[in-house]
Amino acid sequence: MTEQQDQQPPLPPMPTDWQRALAVVAHPDDLEYGAAAAIADWTDGGREVVYVLATRGEAGIDTVAPAECAPLREAEQRASAAVVGVSEVEFLDYRDGVIEYGLDLRRDIAAAIRRHRPELVITMNHRDTWGGADGGGFWNTPDHKAVGRATLDAAADAGNRWIFPELLAEQGLEPWNGVRWVAVTGTTTPTHAADAAPGMERAVKSLMEHKAYIEVLTDQDPEEYVRGFLGGVAEQAGARFGGRPAVLFEVFPR
Fold first, then answer.
1. Which of 28, 33, 161, 203 could serve as 57's disulfide partner, Cβ 3.0–4.6 Å?
2. Distance CA 156, CA 178 (A)
3. What is the pTM of this model?
4. How far is 54 from 107, CA to CA, in rounded Å?
5. What are the beta bridge partners of residue 143?
6. What pLDDT was estimated at residue 220?
7. Hey, which residues does 184 pair with through a beta bridge?
8. Which helix (H) or strand (E) holds 91?
9. pLDDT tens per residue across span 178-211
10. How far is CA 36 from the centre of its chain?
């Protein structure tokens, strides 16, 4: 924990007065690297969570060609989601690594929001860097930025019948104005936190389901790597959550 974190004000807990959530991210493993502990706890409480992934992560393993990698990573993502109580996983089939922010992406995410009618939408850091609104830190990937920003916009698009009217005319998807919050994980400017402790063991197992990806990512023992990464992030986040391991979110009310 840094001195700066210790001096920051404590964060309130995430809202819990909701029943359905939709998590929209770019790649397999994006949710497992941050939000899975919170998701496990939420599904334990009887809430429904659906995953929508823009890509199948086919460009994520240098030693495996995309045609072979896509079904491998899809299978790992479905197994990973099941560990934390998520049974429904959708893929939008954008090309990994070259997603562009635009109307097609907004439309597809708005359609997913209309299909699943969530109260809470979850996405990943949409900013240029991992250093927050003021910059600094590592440069973020184009896919994360495009999907995160499009998800924030699509939460509003989904409720406006005059934006993408073809969703109703061609797919029968009625507008959905029920999104109350969009919560961004992987942020360094959090506004809320969720207790990571109840779901941490399942979060570890969930990330470990991404075996093929982790094996080429690190020379460490996979479980040692996963526990060290997730545990370290949660413990650091706990400095702003009463000392309890936490998952941090930046919540945008709708």
1. 28
2. 10
3. 0.94
4. 12
5. none
6. 93
7. 123, 250
8. strand 89-91
9. 999 999 999 989 999 999 999 999 999 999 999 9
10. 8
pLDDT in tens, 112-145: 999 999 999 999 999 999 886 666 788 999 999 9
CA 63 to chain centre: 26
- Tokens read off for 155: 């939460």
Going by the DSSP 8-state scheme, the letter that residue 253 receives in this structure is: E
Give the H or E element holding residue 204.
helix 200-208
Q: Which amino acid, 139?
A: W
The angle at the Cα of 234, spanning 228 to 240, to the nearest 5 degrees, equals: 145
* Concatenated DSSP letters of 208-252: HT-HHHHHHH-SS-HHHHHHHHHHHHHHHHGGGTTTS-EEEEEEE
Token pair 């919540």 in the structure block, residue: 251
d(CA 104, CA 101): 8
Can you give the C-alpha Rg of the chain in angstroms? 17
**Under 8 Å between Cβ of 222 and 208:** yes
Question: Could you give the CA distance from residue 115 to residue 232 in angstroms, rounded to a whole number?
Answer: 36
Helix, strand or coil for residue 138?
A: coil
